[in-house]
Amino acid sequence: MEEKKENLSPQAERTKRQFKQAFTELINEKGYSRVSVTDIVQHAQYNRATFYLYYLDKAHITEELRQEMFQQIKCKSMERYEPEKEISTTSMDADSFELVTFIYDNRSFFNLYLIEDTIPGLYKDLPRAIFELFEEKFTFTPVGEHDINSSHFKLYMAHGTAGLILDWAGNGYQKSPKEVAGELIEILRAIAAGFRVE
Q: Pick from 43, 49, 53: which is nearest to 16 by CA?
């Protein structure tokens, strides 16, 4: 799978994005189990031969979509922060949670978390990506004497963050990304005075 991602032309990258967008829209419309390769190529307005230039089958495009979004969740969460720099939570503002804006801008994909017949295993991806990010890259300075850098605490934080984000999605994104980011920052300030990104 990895070899197919290398050295692609801008046109090829665009074609793959259109296939994945079509796939995502179709899952939202009819459920994952009911989407076929034929559906994807028709919705994307390509032919099967073009699809098979990039993907072996439905499972292949599914895995690539999951992996791509999993990595984007991790990347978007730390784009603003310089490595090894101490960040005070009091200095954070509503633009400090890039992940929230990323999710809002990719609502079609994140709405897949809300439907029953969705990509198998998808429900685990958002909290797992956030947890891996916390474990690999973030060291928190606690408020008080709590050990908030332990794995079990970071797991708790990851699931709590994912839960609030998915509740926002489930309510139709009624709050703005800045409002949601502000709420997450307030929660973080209650337990962490600051953090450092590795």
A: 53
Q: How far is CA 7 from the centre of its chain?
A: 24
Where are the chain's structural domains?
A: 2-197
Q: What is the pLDDT of residue 137?
A: 94
End-to-end CA, the chain: 29
**CB environment 38-47: b (16+ within 10 A), e (fewer):** ebbbebbebe
Taking a C-beta distance cutoff of 8 angstroms, is the pair 112, 65 a contact?
no
Whether the Cβ atoms of residue 99 and residue 73 lie closer than 8 Å to each other:
yes
Full-model pTM: 0.91
Q: How many residues are listed for the chain in this entry?
A: 198
Q: What is the DSSP string of 108-169?
A: HHHGGGGSSS-STTGGGHHHHHHHHHHHHHEEEEESSS--TTSHHHHHHHHHHHHHHHHHHH
pLDDT tens-digit readout, 116-128:
999 999 999 999 9
CATH class of 2-197: mainly alpha
Q: What is the DSSP letter of 55?
A: -
